[in-house]
What we know:
Elements: E1 4-5, E2 8-9, H1 12-25, H2 31-38, H3 42-54, E3 58-63, E4 74-79, H4 93-107, H5 109-134, H6 141-154, E5 158-164, E6 167-173, H7 178-183, H8 189-203, E7 207-213, E8 222-228
Antiparallel strand pairs: 1-2, 3-4, 5-6, 6-8, 7-8
Helix pairs in contact: 1-3, 2-3, 4-5, 5-8, 6-8
Amino acid sequence: MSKKAMGRVLNRYEIDQRIVEVISLNPHSTIDQIAKETGLSYTAVRNSLQRLMSLGVVDESYESEGPTRRGRPASYFQIDKGLHIVIPPRQFQHLAMTIIAQLVQEEGPEHVAELLDRAAQLQVNRMVTNWEETKTVPKNLAQMLDRICEYINEQGCCAKHMAHKKGYYIQVSNCVYDKIASAYPGTICRYHESLISHLVRYHNDSIFISHEKAMAEGADCCRYIIISK
């Protein structure tokens, strides 16, 4: 089967899950073998495997014997963490929407926003503690923005940072929280706002952060401006 299934293009979660299922049934698979079994292109399989390895789902090993048709030692892949890692975040959206609706009804939207502020602070504390223990604290603002984008991307979003005339901005598209944030404005977006603010100010507390636009308000992406005062 090709990347188009029943007339539609597979999304990256479907591609990831198909590849994980193939490797589960046939450990010690090569990219060529996976591509043949799934009907996906070599490039699609390789990109998916890189993503799955970054998440710790798949392990890669090399063998000097039996090089691939591309002349390199054969790479083999096996499952580490299992299928549950590649479940699309949207499958949890109904439960999240139900919980947020109940909290908003019982406590009000500002209370939900405050809870998310605290949740972001707890996550920042965990990240910073790990960096300090492993001596991998980001050395400059660009490295900190790399770490922030990596974390956001691990949650299923697509974040990147770019230079701005007075500093940088972080742009987030394909936000997995978009529908919930649109239904309850001023609540869900506070998590990313707080996370970015706390991490950037951990690096330099004189930096100004502004949430320039939000998908929940109809924009094509969320954008956070980061400027040194």
